[in-house]
Design a protein that fits this description.
This protein is α/β, with parallel strands linked by helices. It has two domains: 2-110 and 264-277, Alpha-Beta Complex (Aldehyde Oxidoreductase, domain 3), CATH 3.90.1170; 115-259, Aldolase class I (TIM Barrel, Alpha-Beta Barrel), CATH 3.20.20.70. Helix content is 42%, strand content 21%. It has a six-stranded parallel beta sheet. Helix 9 (243-247) links the parallel strand 10 and strand 11 (253-255). Helix 2 (47-57) runs antiparallel to helix 3 and helix 7 (195-204) packs parallel to helix 8.
Length: 278
């Protein structure tokens, strides 16, 4: 599984040749019980990844979820309990928390965006601006938060962007080449930056028109041009602060790279609350 590869790389990165501190304080006979707590309000995500981390480090570690992905957690709440060899718990701690913190950050942001979109009937989606190697997990966290996924890979759908248009010579020529090569069944999305490009994309037969880096007022003007003849996606420069204004422009979809490319991780901590002998 792709998740296993990511976890193995993360553990190799963190453990190196071992844990020089824990290895010289504890023995395999030293047991512990630990809890993971939220240090701020968040939407929880990454529990299964954390479970896999400890399963790889030491299958004898008992992993007991107290909450599940998608739950809204308040500061101070416990989300997970671990018991087993203290060495194993400490060796998996940082890797598990790193995954949980990032994915919870994405899920929390996605929940906030999705709630605004729901008020206006606008679908909120992510982009391919994900952490290298982490795309499937990042996009999973987006879904946990309540937003949706745009294309996972370049093979998933046709999206004619500025560089395609420049290389082909025009929007019309790019659409013609696509239609000649792949037939009539896939939907064609075209990125536009001006009302003139929107008109050209419509005339060329685009199914989805992306309004790229336009203001809300410009988006409203372009919606009138489209007049229901294609789906409208707004993208570029969308933040939680201006999301409502973009929703009011009346698009079908708003995509935001901010859900994944620069979202702050949420703060979770692991504390050993009991030591014992195995």
């Amino acid at each position: 599984m792709i998740t296993d590869k990511i976890i193995l790389l993360a553990l190799e990165e963190d453990l190196g040749l071992g844990d020089i501190t824990s290895d010289n304080i504890f023995t395999p006979a030293d047991g512990a019980r630990a809890v993971v707590r939220a240090k701020e309000d968040l939407v929880l995500c990454g529990m299964e990844v954390a479970r896999q981390v400890f399963e790889i480090v030491d299958p004898s570690v008992r992993f007991t979820p107290l909450k599940k992905d998608g739950d809204e957690i308040k500061k101070g709440e416990e989300v997970l309990e671990l018991s087993g060899p203290a060495l194993s718990i400490l060796k998996g701690e940082r890797t598990a928390l790193n995954f949980m913190q990032r994915l919870s950050g994405i899920a929390s942001a996605s929940r906030a965006y999705a709630r605004v979109g729901e008020k206006y009937g606008v679908m909120i989606v992510d982009t391919r601006k994900t952490q290298p190697g982490m795309r499937r997990l990042d996009k999973y966290a987006v879904r946990v938060g309540g937003a949706r996924n745009h294309r996972m890979t370049l093979a998933d759908s046709v999206m004619i962007k500025d560089n395609h248009i420049a290389a082909a010579g025009s929007i019309t020529k790019a659409v013609e080449k696509i239609k000649a090569a792949i037939g009539h069944t896939p939907k064609i999305e075209v990125e536009t930056e001006t009302p003139a490009q929107v008109r050209e994309a419509l005339a060329a037969g685009a199914d989805i028109i992306m309004l790229d880096n336009m203001t809300p007022d410009q988006a409203k003007e372009c919606k009138q041009i489209v007049n229901g003849k294609a789906l409208i996606e707004i993208s570029g420069g969308v933040t939680l602060e201006n999301l409502e204004a973009y929703c009011q422009a009346g698009p079908d979809v708003i995509s935001s790279g901010a859900l994944t490319h620069s979202v702050p991780s949420k703060d979770l901590s692991l504390k050993i609350v009991e030591y014992n002998k195995i």
